[in-house]
Amino acid sequence: MHPGTRVAVLGAGSWGTTFSKILVDGGADVVLWARRPELAREITEARRNSDYLSGINLPVGLRATPDLQKALAGAKVVFISVPSQTLRDNLVLMEPFLEPGVILVSLMKGVERSTGMRMSEVIAETLPIAPEHIAAISGPNLALEIAREQPTAAVVSSLSMETAHIVAKLATNRYFRSYVNTDVIGTEFGGVLKNLIAVAIGIVDGVGYGENTKASIITRGLVEMTDFAVAYGAQPETLSGLAGLGDLIATCTSPLSRNNTAGRLLGQGYSIHDVVKQMQQTTEGLASVGPILDLARAKGVDMPIVEQVRQVLDGTLNPRDIAPHLTTESSEPQGERNIDDSHGGTAFWGTLKRAFNQLRNGGRSAGGDRPRAL
């Protein structure tokens, strides 16, 4: 698609607004749907979103509206950034206004609590749209850093490489680069699962444990993420890339991460009710714990980190006792398996190296991620 392509972004939270900025700065004609009229007016007239991106100047070309029909009118590509548990209802509202042949792109990192479905699956089930016209974006994407134009990268995934390339070209500018792959399962589950590990890291941080504990949980967390995703058909290499390891590092280590912040409050002794009350925006990791454990049990995947997070949320485990990296069914020493050999995985250094290669100029990523077409 050529510069000036008409696109819509649904959801004016921090990520939806930031992604609108990415698209405008990449040359697209963007209309952002904000549910509240006063927020839409502030974005359009003052070029600010003081609720979610304090201090950020938004591009002159960005328009916002509370009218869903106006936001979608003429849009060739629609990027969706609403809370995952509201996606299905929002899709029903959108359907009458979608253009024929539209591409829908999920910016969300969650699973539907009632069904365990990934966001692309919810879209495919709810709307009469070909799976090849659905894409998902994931990666180490802390909204405020990107809104400040700090360089980063992401992965656009679709069953159709052509669709992935169309979206990646739109979502590329001087500070944001998009790679592509066709592993939608791995890309989406990477974005979901890293949230759960980030909650665990926040808990141990709130308790006061140090870097050794956190490094152990991050490393073992990557194993859990990979085991789970591969059991559902993902390519293990995808979890070694931007949508897996890259996002895991960013979300676990940054105070800008909502999941990390929520975990830290839990570790400091706040109840789940108080944590939800304090968080200004949706914390996808908290909503995904139950569905992910249900899915893990269905495939016989052991997830001790996520299980202990669930116990902390339920109030059955003292945060100070969280130590999932010590959990084992046997007292006998075990071999360190970073990614199961049966999954075709490699040692952790190889994993780390591949992730950083994606950020190198012209670097080819693992698992089919490829640099954008120029």
From TrEMBL:
Occurrences of domain Glycerol-3-phosphate dehydrogenase NAD-dependent N-terminal (ranges): 7-163
Q: Where does NADPH bind?
A: S14, W15, R35, R36, Y52, K109, A143, R258, E284
EC no. given is 1.1.1.94
The UniProt keywords, alphabetically, are:
Cytoplasm, Lipid biosynthesis, Lipid metabolism, NAD, NADP, Nucleotide-binding, Oxidoreductase, Phospholipid biosynthesis, Phospholipid metabolism
- Binding residue positions for sn-glycerol 3-phosphate: K109, G139, K194, D247, S257, R258, N259
Q: Which residues bind substrate?
A: K109, R258, N259
Keyword Methyltransferase on this protein?
Answer: no
Q: Where in the cell is it found?
A: Cytoplasm
Biased composition, class Basic and acidic residues, residue ranges: 334-343
Protein name as it appears in the record = Glycerol-3-phosphate dehydrogenase [NAD(P)+]
EC primary class: oxidoreductase
Its GO biological process annotations read: carbohydrate metabolic process; glycerol-3-phosphate biosynthetic process; glycerol-3-phosphate catabolic process; glycerophospholipid metabolic process; phospholipid biosynthetic process
Which pathway does UniProt place it in?
Answer: Membrane lipid metabolism; glycerophospholipid metabolism
